[in-house]
Amino acid sequence: MDAYTVLIYFLPLGALIAGAAMFTGNLLSIKTKESAHKREAYECGEVIIGDARIQFKVGYYLFALLFVIFDVESLFLFPVARIFRGQVASGLAPHLLLDLAIFVVVLSLGLAYAWRKGALKWD
Amino acid sequence: MSLYLILSILGALVLLSSLGRGKRLVVPLAIAGLLGALAVTGMGLGLDHPLLKGMAEFDRYAVLFSCLLLVLGTLVVLLLTNPNERSDIPRVEMAALLLFSLTGGIMMASFAHLVMLFLGVEILSIPLYILAGARKRERAGNEAALKYFITGSFATGFLLFGIALIYGATGSFSTRAIAAWAEANPAVFTPMFHLGLLLMLVGLAFKISAAPFHFWAPDVYEGSPSIVTSFMSTVVKVAAIAAFYRLFSEAFPAAADAWSWVIAAVAALTLAVGNLGALAQRSFKRLMAYSGISHAGFLLLALLSVGPGSAGALWIYAAAYSFATLIAFVSLLAVEAAGGGESLEALSGLGRRNPFLGVCLTISMLSLIGVPPLAGFFGKLFVFGNAVSQRHVVLVVFAVVMSAVGMAYYMRPIIQTWLRPPAGSPFQLSTSQAWVLGIATAFVVLLAAAPVWVMRFL
Amino acid sequence: MKNLLVVLIPLLPLLGFAVSGLFGKRLGKSATGLLASGMVLLSFLCAAALAMLHFRTGDSAIVVNLFSWIRMPGLSIPMGLLVDPLSLMMVFVVTGIGFLIHVYSIGYMHDDDGVARFFSYLNLFTFFMLVLVLADNFAVLFIGWEGVGLCSYLLIGFWFKNHAFNGAAVKAFVVNRIGDAGFLLGLFLMAMTFGSLSFAEVFSRAASFGSGAPAITLITLFLFIGASGKSAQIPLYTWLPDAMAGPTPVSALIHAATMVTAGVYLVIRSNALYALAPLTMAIIAAVGLATAIWAGLIALSQRDIKKVLAYSTVSQLGFMFLALGMGAWSTGFFHVFTHAFFKALLFLGAGSVIHALSGEQDIRRMGGLRKALPVTYATMLAGTLAIAGIPPFAGFFSKDEIFAKVFEHAPALWAIALAGAFVTSFYMFRLFFLVFHGEFRGDATAKHHLHESPKVMTAPLVVLALGALGAGFAGLPEIFGAPHWISDFLAPVTGRGESHLSHATEWMLMGASVATGLLALLFAWVRYGVKGRVPAEDASVTGVARWSLGKFFIDELYDRAIVKPLFRFSAWIHDVLDRRGLDGAVGAIAGISPWLGQQVRLLQTGNTAFYLFAMALGVFLILFVATLR
Amino acid sequence: MGPITLDHYVFLSAALFCLGVAGVLIRRNILVMFMSLEIMLNAVNLLLGSIAAFRGDAAGQVFVFFIMLVAAAEIAVGLAVMVMVYRNTGSIDLKDLSNLKW
Description:
The structure holds four protein chains of four kinds. By secondary structure, chain B is mainly alpha-helical. Chain B has helices at 3-17, 26-42, 60-80, 91-110, 114-132, 139-170, 175-184, 191-207, 216-223, 226-250, 256-279, 284-304, 310-337, 350-353, 355-369, 375-389, 393-419, 431-446, 450-457, and strands spanning 50-51, 56-57. Chain B has a two-stranded antiparallel sheet with strand order 1-2. In chain C, helix 2 (29-54) runs antiparallel to helix 3 (85-108), helix 4 packs antiparallel against helix 5 (138-156) and helix 6 (167-194) runs antiparallel to helix 8 (214-230).
């Protein structure tokens, strides 16, 4: 039995279990009329306060955007980590460190720019 | 030190200097830097040296196109110093963004590896998405930026998928390795290779605004500030066609059967759409957008006839087109600054309001028509000549007829300039505008002497 | 010395253009006019000096290479000027008649604001025309070719000041550019076939191809497409009548005497190629004859004095091409030469009439002007007699020579051409009698205003009238025993055409064509001179009721059997075929392209979703077709 | 059923790519369109990654890094543009932005 055959068994089985759960729930539960309360989001029984769809401050997006970019930049550190041991063994560690330093400096220049432009101020 | 480094450091310097004092010196600094870069490139330093472990190569083709891009970029940055220029982004930042974009363009002219092509395309485009919307509070600018962004990213998606498929088929991103693979397997192009080739073609066709991937161009050109539009219609188009030609002549010459028919069809459609569309325009800016589309069609003809001399023909055509187009946009900027709008009527009596501008604009339009002995004529001569020698006679006949249609709309600015009563009082050009006009016009006139030199250099 | 003179010929008008363009405002109206005319006169004198210095000794050509223009492997094009008998004659026509028209314009444009601009354009035109005729290779010729086109558009649009740039002008551009496209393709093919564009090299290399070689036939056909665009031949003639919107001196200079003959010049210049392409020659003859008849028929019913002359120009150009189609190069040129005189004269005379009537161009509002405009009357008479081919006026000799050549090659065509000559003579005398005889038909204020034009305008008329009278003697028929001066002079370029007709036949042909001209004169005289008919009546059917038997029975018979049907036919051609048919068909690209442009424009909906969809559709189509292949 | 081959990955990523294209074409909400664009790019990433894995060649995987990085920068600009548009027009529906035309 290879990987796909399992899938064929699982699909109907999964559907059956989920369907059965909903069906028994429907049998057992108490029926109430439609009401505003019933259509509310379920927050563990607490009465909800306000709408879930609120506007965020635009500053939030700025933070998010900056975070995403700098976060993704760090991707480039992974390949370096992968070859680090080999480079050190062949005595190229200083070169590598220098390259990394330049990379980080460029990144921090970007951050400094954003900072000076006031992108990091919350209000 | 490579051109990439010079330009990106220059861009970063300009950007960071916007934080400190002495902003006034920044743009002159950028121009000086660009001229230095031009000198370095023009002297052929670093010629034929593989860069970045062979991912890029400054061969003669790359040097020639880089010089063209640098000159065009310098002229556009020079225009930025015009005191009347209005935008919501500080001028210094605009200059930095233009420099970054230019770096991308030069990468596109010199890549030898598809990663560099992709990075070039993106570095070229991303600053432009910002610049297109430089006037933040104008809805037209917003719309232009958003349209450019969405259609541009969509096209990038196709380009990337194409690259991935080519990689899957050939196992490499290097143009040489791809060409070697295609040569070694001439008969059995796998569907993967074929599909990848065509998708890459689509992605690049978008960048040069070839039909049916041209729809963004008129809207984006119209909505962006004119100075940004001048950059888009010159530097971006030259970079895109340079990359297009470089890719197809270096990586896929052996697969010509698989793509030449597509280029032929796209070129014909582009010629029709560009020329006919321009005929119906009332705004000079939109007219130039359609003119850009139509010239993309002519440029594709050069691509169709890859062979000895075709790269030179492409360069001459691209240079002739972009200098003439730059003149048109400077005229537009000057007229806008003098209180006119973007309509053709705003050019009325320009010849009497500012004779120098009128003469330059007329020369530019005549060159775009292809009147000898201006540069545009030689562009057409060589491009058509090459295409005829490659037996694309029907397409050339069609192109010639379409350039006949082109005459009808390029004459309209000339008629407005000389035969209509002035739309306003005489006005002065700003110093930078006068310089840019003078230099660009000199190129349009003097490039007539260049063909020999270019052909010999390549 | 000689080289300097050659260079000066085109350079002087260019200088005039620069000066009057830059300083015209400061110089004032009359000074600009004098300067512009003076420059053209000077270049005429240079040409004359050159002729004295050089051509008396019997040498054939001077070549001046200014600089090397394009130099690349396989093709090098010098910027060269060539003076040989053919180009020298053309220079004389361009500068001589051009000078007279410049002088005339001083008076004609006197009240216009844009005088300086006007003269600078005229001088620029003269420069390009001289470049065209002096070129020593096809590329330089093409510069002049495009340049005169450009100036022609600038001058047509001269009075379009406040009108939108309309569809008709777009049409004129596109129609002309179809011709130019043909020319350009011809050039490409030529460069590919012969590896050169210089006249001497192309012609000598062509000789080795032999008669009827497909490459040569194709090249000559393409060049002829170019020629028929510039010289307004079927089917590309429709732009010329529209071009009459420009000032009248422009119509005289560009659209009658010089630019429109550039196509004829091109064919004569390339006679070495055409002689090798019998098929093309046959096509040229057919197109020329058809145009001659066709345009003549349309001219019959025109009411605008300049439109009549415009169609008559198209028709005369047709006769020239007919001659070229017979291989009679010098004959074709002879007609170019005489036509330049009398057609410039007719246009300038018309201009004088229009000037007198303050801009009125409708011949129905003219009449009886001979008393008010005596000089114009007399000179117009000379012009009309010349174009009608009445001896001893210039048109007689050149037309007779064409007819003799046609008769020699194809008697059937001769008969048709003779009918064309009849039509020519008739519509010209119709115009003449309607304008100058009878009673004045305009209103009282116009009548009060009538005046002869100033001397500066009438003097060129008189000179041109002398030309229209005497130019023909430059090419006397062989039977008169005198030397055929034009044919002898051009012999180094065109070769010498031999006539095989007997003297009796020649006398007969001459008699026939004179009789035809006179007969048409007579009919026109009876109809418009004696009976005083006005075109409006002809068109109305009620006129039939007033016919009565017994008055002029023959006249009525002629009227019913020939004239009426002819007029109807003419009106029909004009309305149905010309306006809707041919014009529509030629304008297939021209007319349809604005419409297509509109469609392309509307496709740009502004909706990004549609743009994305179009892109995706494009990708899909490309991939779909790729799988089919 | 045999082992999972490269072809399976190619088809999977092609399907993903088509889904992304379809999303861009169908949806009018700019934000959702951005997401669809990301799906297209991720399809490419998947393809490159799997090709690299099957060929034992790191180049494809490094390319993925570049794509991710550039995509992040690109989408950051895109979101900024969107915020700018929203501030001016109060809408992120593409239909509302069709004033530039003809």
